[in-house]
């Protein structure tokens, strides 16, 4: 007879494993189905994010930034360094070690919280049954009072540039995290978050990087004032970014890859040693549910859910990259917590309006809330406060004084509507604005909050003061 659980989670990435742990903490008998096989050939938890996404990419971003700073950023501090040498094998080994530490840590957390890991591919059947297919092809079926689907996403592949990570010439994000030599030239199709981060890694390590982006607006989801500054900074760093381009085809040659692309000036060719295809991601819902289960998907493959992540099937939920909203690990994790608490009879909730976005380039880019262009389109009256890091003492001392903080507040109520940052540690600074928006604070609330001196957080303080023309360390206009 098939075993019955209170909750079965399909997927062990940041959305799924967090949901499973929270369910177990709330006293629910919980199992998590995950099929990932890591680079050592062993089963692993953590999904794309920990294995071939957020964690390895941020590890390489940190390593490459340290290398670049050693070569180019210390002379202004009066520090001269000779004989710098890149050991890429060691850098990659460090990345892999950190990945293993964190994925093994999730396994330990499962054991500590009593979550059972069912290794294999999970498929939803009728009446909340879940079929698990193991690596050897054997299957078993378990029953669940509640099912949480958290199967994540996968890179979009395009016919004009066929990806083969094993060959290592035309790759997606997974392959670009595993180059064993620094390419002399790297082409990147797509100048979004992933393309910019991985392009930055290999640019810092010595590659000439050329990025081809289809849309005319750089970082269209970001506040456009911040995006324009980011584009200026990246071009200054040597990234060649072409907007409004369409890749027509690719051809492998002895020199690497010949890329044919078209823009408003006509047809062009580019030859690069390696090519990264980074044009977005799709929900991983193929072969997820038996047709007779009746799970409702949209035309993109997203699972249809309501505000509480309930699907059209009673007792079946979906979270993370397989549902509407931004494909962000922390968004999926918080949805997992919300669903777990609601299953347990509590009142889980999530404020989708204050989810932070982060791009871990240098300078970092981060934002939460509404952009200026969104407020204009919605007809919301607003005021703007800005403050440049060039006027911040801590940023100057760090030799990281480029960029700004931009704050948007309602013109009538002063409620904080958005915060947009490009500059040092933007990923950390934006969290203050997220907290403020969650508590429905005003720009005046932030302006009246004491911020330590000297600190980068003073730029947040000054931007809040600037909303009402009261900045103290810049000229108010």
Automatic annotation (TrEMBL):
One of its GO terms (cellular component) is cytoplasm. The active site is at residue 453. Its cofactor is FAD. Binds 1 FAD per subunit. InterPro entries: Class-I_Pyr_Nuc-Dis_Oxidored, FAD/NAD-bd_sf, FAD/NAD-binding_dom, FAD/NAD-linked_Rdtase_dimer_sf, Lipoamide_DH, Pyr_nuc-diS_OxRdtase, Pyr_nucl-diS_OxRdtase_dimer, Pyr_OxRdtase_I_AS. One of its GO terms (molecular function) is dihydrolipoyl dehydrogenase (NADH) activity. Belongs to the class-I pyridine nucleotide-disulfide oxidoreductase family. This is Dihydrolipoyl dehydrogenase. It comes from Candidatus Competibacter denitrificans Run_A_D11. Its EC number is 1.8.1.4. Residues 355-464 form the Pyridine nucleotide-disulphide oxidoreductase dimerisation domain. GO terms for biological process: 2-oxoglutarate metabolic process. It is found in: Cytoplasm. Keywords: Cytoplasm, Disulfide bond, FAD, Flavoprotein, NAD, Nucleotide-binding, Oxidoreductase, Redox-active center. The active site is a redox-active disulfide bond. It is an enzyme of class 1 (oxidoreductase). It catalyses: N(6)-[(R)-dihydrolipoyl]-L-lysyl-[protein] + NAD(+) = N(6)-[(R)-lipoyl]-L-lysyl-[protein] + NADH + H(+). FAD binds at residues 58, 122, 151-153, 321, 327-330. PROSITE patterns: PYRIDINE_REDOX_1. Pfam families: Pyr_redox_2 (PF07992), Pyr_redox_dim (PF02852). Disulfide bonds join 49-54.
């Amino acid at each position: 007879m098939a075993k019955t659980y209170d909750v079965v989670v399909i997927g062990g990435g940041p959305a799924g494993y967090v949901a499973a742990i929270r369910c177990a903490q709330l006293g629910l008998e919980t199992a998590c189905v995950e099929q990932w096989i890591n680079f050592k050939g062993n089963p692993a938890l953590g999904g794309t994010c920990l294995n071939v996404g957020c964690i390895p990419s941020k590890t390489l971003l940190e390593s490459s930034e340290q290398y670049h700073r050693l070569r180019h950023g210390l002379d202004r501090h009066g520090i001269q360094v000779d004989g710098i040498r890149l050991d890429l094998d060691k850098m990659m080994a460090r990345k892999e070690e950190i990945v293993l530490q964190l994925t093994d840590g999730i396994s330990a957390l499962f054991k500590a919280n009593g979550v059972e890991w069912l290794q294999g591919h999970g498929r939803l059947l009728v009446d909340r049954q879940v079929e698990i297919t193991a690596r050897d092809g054997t299957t078993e079926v378990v029953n669940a009072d509640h099912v949480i689907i958290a199967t994540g996403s996968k890179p979009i592949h395009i016919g004009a540039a066929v990806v083969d990570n094993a060959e290592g010439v035309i790759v997606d994000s997974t392959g670009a995290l595993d180059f064993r030599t620094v390419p002399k030239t790297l082409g990147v199709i797509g100048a979004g978050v992933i393309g910019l981060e991985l392009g930055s890694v290999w640019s810092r390590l010595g590659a000439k990087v050329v990025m081809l982006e289809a849309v005319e607006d750089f970082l269209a989801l970001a506040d456009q004032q911040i995006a324009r500054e980011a584009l200026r900074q990246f071009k200054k760093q040597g990234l060649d970014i072409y907007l409004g381009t369409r890749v027509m085809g690719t051809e492998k040659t002895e020199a690497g890859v010949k890329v044919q692309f078209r823009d408003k000036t006509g047809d062009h060719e580019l030859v690069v040693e390696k090519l990264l295809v980074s044009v977005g991601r799709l929900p991983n819902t193929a072969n997820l549910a038996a047709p007779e289960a009746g799970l409702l998907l949209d035309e993109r493959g997203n699972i249809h859910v309501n505000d509480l992540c309930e699907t059209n099937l009673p007792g079946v939920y979906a979270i993370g990259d397989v549902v509407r909203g931004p494909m962000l690990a922390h968004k999926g994790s918080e949805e997992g917590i919300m669903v777990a608490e609601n299953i347990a009879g509590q009142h889980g909730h999530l404020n989708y309006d204050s989810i932070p976005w982060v791009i871990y380039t240098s300078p970092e880019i981060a934002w939460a809330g509404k952009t200026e262009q969104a407020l204009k389109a919605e007809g919301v009256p607003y005021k703007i406060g800005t403050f440049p890091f060039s006027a911040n003492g801590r940023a100057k001392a760090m030799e990281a004084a480029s960029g700004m903080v931009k704050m948007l507040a309602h013109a009538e109520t002063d409620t904080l509507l958005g915060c947009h940052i490009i500059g040092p540690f933007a990923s950390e600074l934006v969290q203050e604005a997220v907290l403020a928006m969650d508590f429905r604070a005003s720009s005046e609330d932030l302006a009246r909050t004491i911020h330590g001196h000297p600190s980068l957080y003073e730029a947040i303080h000054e931007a809040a003061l600037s909303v009402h023309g009261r900045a103290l360390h810049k000229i108010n206009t």
